[in-house]
Amino acid sequence: MKIFLTGRPGIGKTTVIKKVVELLKDKAVGFWTEEFRDLKTNSREGFKIITTDGRVLIFASKKLNSPYKVGLYGVNIEGFEQTVIPFLEKAINQKNRIVVIDEIGKMELFSDKFVNLVRKIVFNIDYNIIATIPIKDVHPVVASIRRLKIGNLIEVNLENRITIHSYVYRLILQNL
């Protein structure tokens, strides 16, 4: 079972992922990405990754000096590869688990290890995945996911973003 959520930035893809993870409980193994803000100015400072087992990693920040940049944000590829890659590799070796990846986006795709692992999970029928992808093809792997015939590509939009998690959850249950 392959489910990919797409939609414009800020539309609620991560919220859908988090609601589905909550419903799936321990069947879901993976991560989501959330922004974090400066407490004084309330301006966005960067992004953190949260794993389903509760680990938190500062993934990108305006204050992070990194050769990997997206806009104003330096990206912590080393920390990402040390935290997320082993966690996802462990997840695919557990039976009856759904791998959760939020998101297969520009920042994450700086990591060749991540790209290779995503290809392994996405293009192997033995692995179940729910993931988010950008609305634009920011990388060849995103374009190839969008063309997949064996997955469900669902656009999150203003009309469905409040209730789509229920549909996605039912879809997962029907296909497990």
Number of domains: 1
> What is the strand tally?
9
Shape: globular
CATH architecture: 3-Layer(aba) Sandwich
CATH topology: the name is Rossmann fold
Descriptive report:
This protein is α/β, with parallel strands linked by helices and 176 residues long. The protein is 33% helix and 27% strand. The chain contains 5 helices and 9 strands; from the N terminus they run βαβββββαβαβαβα. It has helices spanning 13-24, 77-92, 112-122, 140-146, 164-175, and strands spanning 2-6, 28-37, 44-51, 56-61, 69-70, 73-75, 98-101, 128-132, 152-155. Strands 5-6-4-3-2-7-8-1-9 form a 9-stranded mixed beta sheet, with helices on both faces. β3 (44-51) and β4 form a beta hairpin. The protein starts with a strand and ends with a helix.
Report a brief summary of the structure:
This protein is of the alpha/beta class and 176 residues long. The protein has helices at 13-24, 77-92, 112-122, 140-146, 164-175, and strands at 2-6, 28-37, 44-51, 56-61, 69-70, 73-75, 98-101, 128-132, 152-155. It has one domain (2-175): P-loop containing nucleotide triphosphate hydrolases (Rossmann fold), CATH 3.40.50.300.
